Amino acid sequence: MQDVISPNTGLVIGRWTPDSAARIGTVLDRLPQAIADLASPDRRKAFLSAAIARIDQARAPLAAIIVAEVGKTPSEAADEVDYAISFLRHALTQVPVAGLDTGERRLRVVPAGPVLAITPYNDPLAGIVRKIAPAIAAGCPVVVKPSGLGHLTALTLFEALSDAVPADAVTQVNTDDRAMLHRLVADPRFRVLSFTGSTPTGMAIAAQAGLKRLVLELGGNNPFLVLEGADLDRAATDAVARKTRAAGQACSAQNRIYVVAPLFNAFRDRFLDRLNAVRFGASDGGVAMGPVRSPRDLDRLMALSAGGQALGTLAAPAPFAFGPVVLDDDTALREAEAFGPLVSLCPVADRRSALALAASEEQALVCYLYGEVEPADLAPLRFGSLGINSTKIQGAEVPTGGFGTAGIGREGGDWGLREFQTTINERWGI
User: What is the pTM of this model?
Assistant: First the structure.
């Protein structure tokens, strides 16, 4: 049995039992039947519609377990339920997918095959649904291996879906055994592997996966640029909101803020004032920002934040509470993704210097730019998403993902569906 510890209380709020090798073997043996269950586009649409209804009906218990298990605030948890449903709604619009038939030439769009989805704790509900929704739409059965730190949310989700989607078509397996994970990743019955997590883990998985299609969202070392012409109040407000949402435990949160020198002092004052007003602590205690997920996260952030300026107000104590910290040097965060409410704030000489710093990023998931931005400024920036005077970059209808060591493949939109599809080209003699 594995204990689940709430970051709000430090107490055990549930337990889960790892699956036996025999049970996991049975799941894998049933994948051929699962392919048959998803063969009909009409059935896939019915499954997606039923999944939307079941999650909508389970809003309250899903939001409550997200708050208790991973430390999101009630409003963040409610937003996550809505976000999860949005992926199912979008997937429903993508069924069926038309091919091409000219008589002599027939191009069929077909499922890529069974999917192994390894999901993160920071979005314990939406992180699963954003993978299973397009897979179902494409006709691919999915085996989900959720994070042990988000396990109770996954269990609540699968209970809600138990009479909406055939069990063989979307199945959860429960294990944190490294040997079993290696076996799953290497199993040739899986044709697609979708993983969200750290860059080192993602690279190790890619090396083990063999000839599978990979969809890897590996986080980002995301810069936030404040350039000439920026609305400093808006930029500061958005920067604080983006960094403190989910206690900074989001792949799309900014890691480093660079401000052109003439605007630095004015922006810094606004940013620190807003950050210092953030109330943090137990997420069910009426705060703006909940705790980080685990003692390991807390220790990592404490090590990275040495010498930084601690801000915010501890309003509702929690064992894993970590208030916002600002570093005046970016050295510690050039290579390490903070993945928490820790950020560096540094001046740069001018626009060219700021853009050059962004363009050199290897873990290139998201870049935010505030100020007067021209298309020419964006041309050298190879990030999966760019937020220009906005941090609202995500949505079920748009593709997100990274360049370089931020991963490969895309989730969301038509591009996300295509990760689970392939084609058969038929040439008919007449």
Answer: 0.96
